[in-house]
Amino acid sequence: MSANKDSVGGTLKVALLLCVVCSIFISSAAVILKPMQEANKTLDRNKNILAAAGMFDEQMNTNDDVDELFAQFTPRIVDLETGDFATEEQLAELNIDVTTYDQRTVFTDPQFSEALEASEDIAGLKRLVRFVTVYLVEGPNGELQDIVLPVSGYGLWGTMYGYLALEGDANTVKGIGFYDQKETPGLGGEITNPRWKAQWPGKEVYSEDGDVALSVVKGEGQGVHQVDGLAGASLTSRGVDNLIEFWLGPLGFGPFLTKLTNG
Ligand SMILES: Cc1cc2nc3c(=O)[nH]c(=O)nc-3n(C[C@H](O)[C@H](O)[C@H](O)COP(=O)(O)O)c2cc1C
Predict the structure, then answer these.
(1) DSSP assignment, residue 204?
(2) pLDDT tens across 101-132, in order?
(3) pLDDT tens-place string over residues 195-237
(4) Exposed e or buried b for every residue in 90-103, given b needs 16+ CB within 10 A?
(5) Does the CB atom of residue 72 touch ligand 1 within 6 A?
(6) Which DSSP helix (H) or strand (E) runs through 40?
(7) What is the distance between the alpha carbons of residues 117 and 137, in angstroms, rounded to a whole number?
(8) C-alpha dist (Å) from residue 260 to 6, 154, 164, 253
(9) CA of 157 relative to ligand 1 center, distance in Å
(10) C-alpha span between 123 and 195 (Å, rounded)
(11) Where are the domains of the chain?
């Protein structure tokens, strides 16, 4: 004899079955799509690195072009505490795979990061990850051509994440790009505007005595060290100014860049 499908028990059974089928469907989709999501994440990161280095044009490039261009870049892990490249032992101990390591995912892990003192934390980061990935391009004779550094800092509404590309002299800017930020479109969000970003190439980071001189100023920037602030978005502009000062300074990539260029 068949069960009464209109009974409370029958309704619950159908609901339960539906839940099980849906959860199997959703978990399978999540598992099946994971490699695709990871591949898209990597592709997006690579596009951003290329864009910062002035090597990516939205109109021209297919995904294969991105892969081909990105093949020129060598990812290396830098130990910010020493300013040297991380050793094989350090990478093995922390289980870091250079190609997949993402400092953003280990940001709160005390094994990887330390709290910053308020007086040091000019970019509003709260913590500093010790090991970070930089991307290098070498020329035909092994000379350094591009150095792409990940940078981040607080704007008005949240942390802005981007890349700053320098020429092989570790001083001349090739470009900047922000790929994750929460600033208001039309105001702080103008940090992603190509017209604003066009001011950066050719600017110089360090003064003659080695201090970070590159800055985003209110109004019109003058000379090789200043970039115009965004009108009506002084707080975001100050955020960019602060993150430049932090990441190119002594707690950020300053010691690494000095060692890189002094051999
Ligand atoms: C809804 C709203 C959104 C805003 N978004 C931003 C922003 O993303 N970045 C920013 O610096 N200022 C933003 N502002 C403006 C700031 O509150 C502040 O007035 C501005 O940064 C001052 O810039 P100024 O000195 O160039 O005028 C926003 C204001 C409002 C009302």
Answers:
(1) B
(2) 999 999 999 999 999 999 999 999 999 999 99
(3) 999 999 999 999 999 999 999 999 999 999 999 999 999 999 9
(4) bbeebebeeeebeb
(5) no
(6) helix 8-52
(7) 34
(8) 75, 28, 16, 10
(9) 10
(10) 24
(11) 72-261
The token duo for 257 is 């860049």
- Give pTM, 2 decimals: 0.88
- Rounded to the nearest whole angstrom, what is the distance from the C-alpha of residue 251 to the centroid of ligand 1? 29
Give the tokens for residue 195. Answer: 């017209």
For ligand 1, say whether the CB of 216 is within 6 Å of any of its atoms.
no
Asked whether 233 lines ligand 1 (CB < 6 A), one says yes
Question: Does ligand 1 have an atom closer than 6 angstroms to the CB of 156?
Answer: yes
The residues near 191 (Cβ < 8 Å, ≥ 6 apart) are 155, 160, 178, 181, 183, 197, 230, 236, 240
Distance of alpha carbon 63 from alpha carbon 101, whole angstroms: 21
> How far is the C-alpha of 166 from the C-alpha of 176, rounded, in Å?
9
DSSP state of 127: E
Q: What is the mean pLDDT of the chain?
A: 93
Kindly provide the residue ranges of all beta strands, DSSP E only, lying in 15-57, ordered along the sequence: none
